[in-house]
Amino acid sequence: MRRSAATSAGGVALLFAIGLLFSGFASTAVGSYAGSVVMADLLRRQVPVFARRLVTATPALFVLALGVDPTGALMLSQVVLSIGIPFALIPLVVLTSRERVMGVDRNHSLTVLAASTVCVAIVGLNIALLALSFFG
User: Fold this and answer.
1) How far is CA 86 from CA 50, 58, 68, 81, 116, in A?
2) Taking Cα atoms as reference points, which of 133, 35, 37, 34 lies closest to residue 82?
3) Whether 57 contacts 31, CB under 8 Å
């Protein structure tokens, strides 16, 4: 017996939705764990696992409860999150190239050149993304 294309597409869509849901759970778990390490080691605070997961999942559930288009909300959230990329990438390149910070393990000139080139390309593409997303 042959299935129709619509039935197959519906099954694939369901599998994709389940995979996306579990991907979100995994991302939330990793983010919660990273946050707990930062809070425990740097801030000397303990927050229960359930509370961390609840806090990280609440904004997404709130957006869905409002009836906002999930795809549009996801795209917008990723564009907004991309604003932070230069604030992590530029100090990474600068600090790993300083002997005062890294000692003998600092990056060599060729590595700094390659990293700087990639950094400029990523920041440039990020600026283009932000311009197209908000002003395009």
Assistant:
1) 32, 27, 29, 11, 12
2) 133
3) no
Residue 78: the pLDDT is 84
C-alpha dihedral (110, 115, 116, 120), degrees to nearest 10: 150
- Give me the residue label for tokens 């927050």: 47
Straight-line distance from the first to the last Cα atom of the chain, in angstroms, rounded to the nearest whole number: 49
Spell out the residues 6+ positions from residue 71 whose beta carbon is closer than 8 angstroms to its own.
none
What is residue 98's predicted lDDT score, i.e. its pLDDT?
Answer: 93
- Averages of pLDDT over runs of 10 residues in the chain (136 residues) are 61 84 81 77 78 81 87 84 89 93 93 95 92 85
Question: What whole-number distance in Å separates Cα of residue 57 and Cα of residue 70?
Answer: 14
Burial class (CB in 10 A: 0-12, 13-18, 19+), 57: middle
Which DSSP symbol is given to 42? Answer: I
